[in-house]
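Students often ask why we bother encoding 3D structure as a string. The short answer is that it lets us treat folding as translation between two languages. Here is a chain of 149 residues written in the first language.
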Amino acid sequence: MSELINVKANVDDHKFHIKNGQMYSKELKQFIDDKASQEEVEILSEKFGEYCAFEDLLVLQDKVIPVVKDFKTNIEQVNIDMDQNKQIIRRFDEVLSSKASKIALDQQDKKLKSYFSMKQFREFDSNLEKYKMESSKTLSEFNKKLGKI
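And here it is in the second language, the structure alphabet:
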């Protein structure tokens, strides 16, 4: 009797499945389910004609790698040249800005020359001071005359 209980427990542990009239354990069923079906194998075998052999890939790699390295070297040189051009343009811009500032100062200088020069301003200022003094003197005399009346 105990042997019958052991067999039943063993059957319950393996969870047998019946497929096409045959019994399979859970592990065997999982193993079969994980494998490719005949249809999948046929589809894959048809696709093999679309792919190259590994040796062909190595030959292609030997041809392509040097070209890619040359391309990479050329791109690095272009980047170096571009950085140099940026520096040249930056310096050119600085020189151009400096010259533009000098030109602007020259224009301002010419414009200022059309106004009073410092000599003319000093003469005008001294004449103004003389006028103030004369006006003040004249006004004082006038006020004195008014005060007498």
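Translate back mentally: Residues 4-14 have pLDDT under 50 and may be disordered. Keep this in mind for the problem set.
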